[in-house]
Amino acid sequence: MGVVPGGGSAPAPQSHPGRIERALEGGPYRGFGETQDPGTHSVPGAPEENTRERPQGSGTRPALQGGRTFYLETFGCQMNEHDSEKVAGVLLARGYRQVESPEVAAVILYNTCSIREKAAQKIFSRLGEYRFTRKEGQVIGVLGCLAQQEGEEIFARAPWVSLVCGSASYRKLPEFIKELEAGNTRVTGLETDTDETFETEMTRRDNPWRAYLTIIEGCDKACTYCVVPFTRGPERSRASASVLEEVQQIADLGYTEVQLLGQTVNSYADPSARRMRFSELLVAVAEVPGIRRVRFMTSHPRDFGKDIVEAIEAVPALCDHVHLPVQSGSTAVLRAMARTYTREEYLEKIAMLRGAKRRISITTDLIVGFPGETEKEFEETLSLMDAAQYDGAFSFKYSPRPNTPSLKMEDAIPEEEKSRRLGILQGRQREIQIARNARLVGEVFEVLVEGKSRRENQWMGHTSCNRVLNFTSRGEEILGHYVQVRVTGAGPNSLVGEG
Ligand code: 5AD
Ligand code: SF4
Description:
Strands 2-1-3-4-5-6 form a six-stranded parallel sheet, sandwiched between helices. Strands 15-16-17-19-18 form a five-stranded mixed barrel. Strands 7-10-11 form a three-stranded parallel sheet, sandwiched between helices. The protein is built from 16 helices and 19 strands. By secondary structure, it is α/β, with parallel strands linked by helices. Helix 15 packs parallel to helix 16. It has three domains: about 1-30 and about 440-499, CATH 2.40.50.140; about 45-190, Methylthiotransferase, N-terminal domain (Rossmann fold, 3-Layer(aba) Sandwich), CATH 3.40.50.12160; about 210-440, pyruvate-formate lyase- activating enzyme.
């Protein structure tokens, strides 16, 4: 085991043992191996932890129980998780205290996801729980994509909600909360045509090892199945100097790993006179003293150029992992999805990545059962998977979403057929991952140690290529350090090893 001297001491003030334990159970720290939905897991203060504390009696004003307190639950993607870190930071700075149970909170906030119907349903059922249990004076707010998508409809469906606010309006959250405190019963923030990004000095970071940073908000790509352009608005990039300043602050906090976020992160367009390209920004972030790993997600194939591969080849701190959603292996389906590339063009990007001087892991997103998808077109997705040899994939059944162009497309695929295709696709991907991971046995990887198991000498962390590695080590105090681990075994979704 080689604990790298000076490499990544645990950022103590951020430490959050509860979450580290959960990391070992495959919580929000998942690697990329899984095929389940990355967009519907919940983060801190998960509900199962809350039910135990249900206070007796009702009608007590929460202010009497907990003063200015808030409970925040997050559904959805990493962008949402990170938005929640910012929302929490803003509220903490205003004197609020975060509680782990909605029952004792003065303000209950749900940061929501609406990417697929299941995610939206889950939130409405969670809101439904408050119909009878909500206490007088308790504020219930819906933030995020479902808020933006449903707007004031939410008040109609759940009249006990008093705040509805989409991500493009988060800058105004403190104002909105002031209005609610002043006695206003319904407040909305639903604009999307804003140049603003939600930048704040006050981010409260939940992940003790990986600091998230949004560099581009919204999306201009208009894929025909996707709600994001409606819920998060048009693309807005942050000025490179502001990004680099925040990276420096992150490093000063003790973080060594940073993940740049954006729905289409590589479509970054520096609005400042510096006009830094995305690949230049990656290199500049990696050069910030203290930063040792830089990740970025999600890349759109159209804007994925050779310059990004060259940056990864040249700068070891840029992690050797690219998430490059393909969605379908059929050019006809890709056209119907308005993905702006053909199967062949996508495979050229894969060839470029596979031909890099440094080995780069590639992961993807896939949709089965898009309207009109024929059996042959589905098989083209399977053959593309064989050709691309993904190291991980998130796969989904097509879910019709409000406002999207694909909603009106004919030839919907029956649910059972979508399930059948998804099962086949996931089975194929599992085989690919088993084979790819097995080839790594015997290799040594550098791991950032992120979790300690209850079992003696058992640890977990991520490799630069974003694989989860569970390993044994007699080392002490290695949490937050970089260690060298030899892989001794491999499953479809993770590796095991010895440090
Ligand atoms: N149905 C199914 N999957 C979807 N995604 C986005 N919109 C839909 C939808 N309507 C998937 C895409 C995207 C990932 C984040 O979610 O694969 O890359
Ligand atoms: Fe949605 Fe397409 Fe934008 Fe991704 S690129 S967020 S799938 S519209």
